[in-house]
Structure of Dihydropyrimidinase:
Amino acid sequence: MSILIKNGNIVTASENFIGDIFIENETISAIGKNLKYEADEVIDASGKLIFPGGIDPHVHLDMPFMGTFSSDSYETGTRAALFGGTTMVIDFILQTQGKSLRSALEEWKGRSEGNAVGDYSFHMAVTDYNDNTKPEIREMIEEEGITSFKTFMAYKGALMVDDRQMVGLMEEVKQHGGLINVHATNGDMIDYLVQKNRNEGNRAPIYHYLSQPEVTEAEASERFVDMTNFTGCPGYIVHLTCEGALNAVRNATRRNQHVFVETCIQYLILDASLYEQDFEGAKWVMSPPLREKKDQETLWAGINQGLVNVVATDHCPFFWEQKLMGIDDFSKIPNGHPAVENRMELLYSEGVHKGRITLSKFVEVACTNPAKIFGMYPKKGTICIGSDADLVIFDPNEKHTLSAKTHHMNVDYSGYEGWEVTGKVKTVLLRGKVAISNNECLVEKGYGQFIKRNKVSDKI
Ligand code: URP
Ligand code: ZN
Ligand code: ZN
Ligand code: ZN
């Protein structure tokens, strides 16, 4: 099977030119001007952008969490991702405290295998690091191609690890060539503030926000950065939201230390005023919470300063019925919101179209850096000969409106209802197959592959 894409504006993290792409089977086999190959299918991309398939390295599909499950399965979540130009996601396995990493991996395989439409991989969240877990780190890296390990400094009593476990895990992960990811907020401070607010009868969603002030994130980020400096383990802060936390990373650059930073699309474009309504604010109850307008400006600038390396989503959808679990108590509202389908178009529209970032920066933070940081480059994340033919053909001028009525995520509301975007995903190829065309998905459940990842470094 071969496909020739003609006359598109090809964009990578470093280049931008008009050309053709020739695809044989799953990979790109030629790039150039006026390519004269016989192909089974020819796609005219005149007037369109072509960029690498998006990679969202932070999603939660079918995840047991806060007494329920996130509502997108591997099928619905990866399909919705494809509709939005994201050809690969990295999901999180959660170890159950007292049990092995291996048993958690088997449980996640049970839900994912044969079900994904788009490609996927796993991070392993270590919630209980001890003498039994230690040898499993090497196993995950060497045998399973799972090379990143997530830790939570929050969710006390459920997922949180203490600093002793964190430092031990970092030493082991470093030794075997892995990377440590962190949800960096101070779990003890948050736990105290949550209980205090509940005791005072403060039960509305806004108290979720007020129980996780900026200092809880800044403090934990600083502690994490210091621990990675001490151990020498490559580090990656997930869903960073605010100026105080980014300053911890900025300070580390003064000693020539680099910690990777991910923010999420919602922290760039939504702010905490959304919590100032009654229970409706539950739609945006997530951890960390939305912040201030000043933090949005800091994050956009951080992208251009090279401090923020990745824009993900932390896609973790729940039906309204599930959000209602917290109608009388903000601490029982399942944390998370749906976004995997909207990330690329929102980032293009709010970032590139509005002049905040360049087109190449867009590709860098949405496609290329996730592939580089997580050990998949150049198979994924770029357009070059030999890369997987994961491509997005994008109309930079088409305007449309986001809505739960038209999205493909398995959830009955949108965090972006009525949002006008400029730029639309038109055609998506995944490993050489046309996966999305004319608003239709042309690949079946089971087409998505688990991608084994390589060892990583702290340089990209
Ligand atoms: O609110 C969130 N972020 N839910 C998903 C779990 C996490 O902390 O990433
Ligand atoms: Zn070891
Ligand atoms: Zn988190
Ligand atoms: Zn998350």
Q: What stands out?
A: Residues 183, 238-239, 287 surround zinc ion (ligand 3) (CB under 6 Å). The chain has a mean pLDDT of 98. The two ends are 34 Å apart (CA to CA).
